[in-house]
Amino acid sequence: MCKDRKPAVRIVCFMCIVTVIAAATNQFCNESVLSVCRSNIGLTRIPKDLSPDIEDLDVSQNDISELQASDLSFLSRLKVLRVSYNRIQQLDLSVFKFNHDLEYLDLSHNQLQRISCYALVSCKHLDLSFNDFDALPICEEFGNLTQLSFLGLSARKLQQLDLLPIAHLHLSYILLELGGYYVKENGRESLQILNTKTLHLVFHPDTLFFVQVNISVNTLGCLQLTNIKLNDKNCDVFIEFLSELTRGPTLLNVTLYHIETTWKCLVSIFQFLWPQPWPKPVEYLNIYNLTIIEDIQKENFTYSKTTLKALTIEHVKNRVFILSQTVLYRVFSEMNIVMLTISDTPFIHMLCPQAPSTFKFLNFTRNVFTDRIFQKCSTLVRLETLIPQKNGLKDLYKVGLMTKDMPSLEILDVSWNSLESDGLEGNCLWVESIVMLDLSSNMLTDSVFSCLPPRVKVLDLHKNRIQSIPKGVMQLESLQELNVAFNSLADLPGCGTFSSLSVLILDHNMVSHPSADFFQSCQKIRSLKAGNNPFQCTCELREFIKNIGQVPRGVVEDWPDSYKCDYPESYKGTPLKDFHPSQLSCNTVLLIVTVGATMLLLAVTMTLLCIYLDSPWYLRMLPWYVRMVFQWTQTRRRARNLPLEELQRPLQFHAFISYSEHDSAWVKNELVPNLEKEDVRICLHERNFVPGRSIVENIVNCIEKSYKSIFVLSPNFVQSEWCHYELYFAHHNLFHAGSDNLILILLEPIQQ
Hints:
Layout: H1 7-16, H2 18-25, E1 35-37, E2 56-58, H3 69-72, E3 80-82, E4 90-92, E5 104-106, E6 114-116, E7 125-127, E8 150-154, E9 171-177, E10 189-202, E11 213-218, E12 222-229, H4 235-245, E13 253-262, H5 263-273, E14 284-293, E15 310-318, H6 325-333, E16 339-343, E17 361-363, E18 385-387, H7 396-403, E19 411-413, E20 436-438, E21 458-460, E22 481-483, E23 503-505, H8 518-521, E24 527-529, E25 535-536, H9 542-548, E26 565-567, H10 583-586, H11 588-612, H12 615-639, H13 644-647, E27 653-658, H14 664-676, E28 682-683, H15 685-688, H16 695-704, E29 706-713, H17 715-718, H18 721-737, E30 742-746
């Protein structure tokens, strides 16, 4: 209802949906220390076991037939009482005389026929609607309700001065339920409502509209009518009724809920509200739950100058199955208004206006539009916002082509369609004025980055099929906000292509090793949301975690709660802020120097011990050690000639896989699932390395405990030092064991 972004529209819309929001809120029954819910449990009386401190009590949807002072007198702090949907037939409002703080009283949907009045001086919300009153239940005491803002009433008949006792009050909302209203044929009644900002009239849902009442309202800003059933015969009755209500100079908003009408009558209602010459200041017309019956024929419509700015139609049922689509769509396409919303309808198309249009805002959410919409349409020259989300759009190229002749277009929302970008080669045509583009919840891939408006500032691509952001994409120098959440990205994108990027949303992707230089590349970033990714807690992640600690607080959103280790298994669930690997285990050079120094120190120590403990004796023992080595070598040589069954010994794994972390997506999504599907036991460093052991020791153990060693070769593999170590130990094991335990997979070509 408030799809436009104008403050004035939002204010008027707020005024008109207060009751809808309140009704929706009342559907929930929440309990707290000061709030108690006893709804829908078969109560016949107010419970006696309630705390005297409660402020909010809900006993709706029960079988309560009466209220007595003793039921409520001990609830001295009560502010909110909901007793709707019960069986109360008569009520003395003095039962609330001990509830001095009572502000909200809902007695709607009961069987009330009579009430005895009492001044509830603190009351702000009093709802007596949907009851069985014959006349409006207004008495002199209501004139003392100076804080009253909302008043809900029911009646079968109306008299002009029924509301005289509250004429001096300035109400925000009056709900008048006339479901049982009856008047003699050709009879006419009148009612002076005086002061209210919003008037909501509810009629019987199954009866043709016949109400003939002159209702006079001062200061009325919003009019709501619910349950309107029309045909060509009673259409004039409704329009006459509407004419009395729309005479006021302050009425800006008219909303019709649940209206069943013929096409001819609907066009007549539009035509009634259109002309400007007579005093109808209505600027916003909203229709929700519209059902069109009988037939749709061409109707004459005069698009004269009008004060109407916006038309909203949502939830349309069309019971006419044979019709001219042109007749239907042409009425809307030629409207000389600023904002048009047609949502949740069976409409399959919308015509291009025949002349330059006044439309600035078009919302066509949840229809059945195709890629044909507005192709070669050059009359939407003032259009600033276009929202065809949740339709049947498929071709991103045609979407761009659609905008080519819309020179004022700034906001385009084509989310929740079936858009694809495969096959595009960067020759997309977009109007350059677009600054906000929503392409979320489609089927777009990496190639979408070669088909984007050049000056877009806010780009939403979440929930697509993007695996990477290509380095050779077009320069989007104006891009400030990028949302690529819920895709399959393996790393944080740099800002070389997006030089103005300040907001990046990247949560729920496949980022395991975010680039350590991200913050150096993206120095303008002021908001990063990258949580809920499968972070692999290895040494490579230390620098990224360190950089997070150096950026201003609040830049990395949801830190640290949404940033947790996913691999290896021993660290799974550990917050990144608590991952602190030792310097020795992460620095290969330092590790080698430390091991070398230790070995040298050990050798020097042993030499000194030998000299100190009689080295000649050790020299004499040297031939014996030589013979032992010779015998071990001979034993290994004889082992090669043993039968196969004697050489086979149970190992823990079938294969150990060595790969670069940059190739992890292919290994985890393709190689490992296909091998494990055949019951092959796989050894992976992220889940099988033993915490506490050095990396070298873990590598040797995994190779020796596996029948085979699989190496996934790629340029990334060649550049990894740890991959070199794994290959070295596997080679050593190959020559040592004399077996063919190496399997090499060339994932990507490697330069000579």
